[in-house]
Amino acid sequence: MAGIYIHIPFCRQACYYCDFHFSTSGRLRTEMITSIIAETALRAHYLSNEPIETIYFGGGTPSLLTANEIQRILDTIQAKFNIVSSPEITLEANPDDLHKTYLQDLKKLGVNRLSIGIQSFFEKDLKLLHRIHDRDQALNCVKDARDAGFDNLNLDLIYAMPHGTDAEWAENLRQMMQLAPTHLSAYALTIEESTVFGRWYQKGKLRPVDEDKAADQLEMLMDVTAQHGYEHYEISNFCQPGYESKHNSSYWLQKKYLGLGPGAHSYNGTERHFNVSNNPKYVKQLSADLLACEGEKLTDNDRINEYLMTRLRTKWGIDLRRMGKDLHFDLMKNYGDYINHLQLQGHLFINEENITLTRSGKMIADEITEHLFQM
Ligand code: SF4
């Protein structure tokens, strides 16, 4: 089984923390849709005819597309790939785009999962982040999405907000639990160099939250979601039973995927491909029926590192037998002392075949992965 990701590289306005690939100019929009459709056809064999079980529109802001544009892309995917009978089809959306008729149109197209960027229920946070929506739009769109028949909703939240308090984070979590989405993604705010926040940081105008405070807020997140029956199945992702994101899980479980659109990545089991993160260059290449990507064959160390980095963060953990069989790497032989030490400190569960993080291990997941990395 494999997945298809479509990157829609347009946003109405730039959020101050965001370093994804997007443009706030809609200048090449028509050409972009044509180019993504052309790339879909050109890469029809990338996944060796494996059944496609997930399709994911990410961005950027896919909810800027009209229903007709989404339909044209889906029709091409349907015509060129072998799709399972009930694929998970997710569309990332901003609250201000989700009008009632648009939601009904998405439903008719077969979109069955929405991932909505709420980020905070406080207006002051939304303003600081330079989000385009307000609190009422966030609350209304969840209701409207459910009225239109979307019962599988992911909602995004951001914690460790500059100037944010623990009490405000508790209130955000309370309101989120009231909405009871099937899936919650919650990320600590990071300050990336190429963003407005990055520039403010350089000038001393913005200070990141200290690590202890971010850790406290992660603890609150784990407590509240557990009390409400959510499973913490990946460091930043929580779901009601049975509602894991199939698409994102496929990345963490090393399944193959094809990424279409500028900035998208693909993985065919042995190589990674990276599409150019530049809208005019992408469109120029595709309008000449040429791909706009570069590839790299993964080395043995790359494959080991990717496996460690993705799997350790999940409930599935590291499968020691699989590491030995597929990656020819005996983790216990190389790092037995370190791993046993972590277990004694209560950071890991170990059984014969599997290593998973405990709650305290999740707090230091990056540190553990870094220690295990193969250079
Ligand atoms: S809407 Fe999403 S992709 Fe666009 S700037 Fe904001 S966070 Fe980034």
From TrEMBL:
Domain of life: Bacteria
Function: Probably acts as a heme chaperone, transferring heme to an unknown acceptor. Binds one molecule of heme per monomer, possibly covalently. Binds 1 [4Fe-4S] cluster. The cluster is coordinated with 3 cysteines and an exchangeable S-adenosyl-L-methionine.
Subcellular location field: Cytoplasm
Residue intervals of the Radical SAM core domain: 1-231
Organism of this sequence: Persicobacter psychrovividus
The protein's name in its UniProt record: Heme chaperone HemW
Main location class: cytoplasm
Family as reported in the entry's similarity comment: Belongs to the anaerobic coproporphyrinogen-III oxidase family. HemW subfamily.
NCBIfam families reported for this sequence: hemN_rel
Protein's UniProt keywords contain Heme: yes
Signal peptide from the UniProt entry: none
Alphabetized Gene3D superfamilies for the sequence: Aldolase class I (3.20.20.70)
Keywords on record: 4Fe-4S, Chaperone, Cytoplasm, Heme, Iron, Iron-sulfur, Metal-binding, S-adenosyl-L-methionine
Cofactor(s) named in the record: [4Fe-4S] cluster
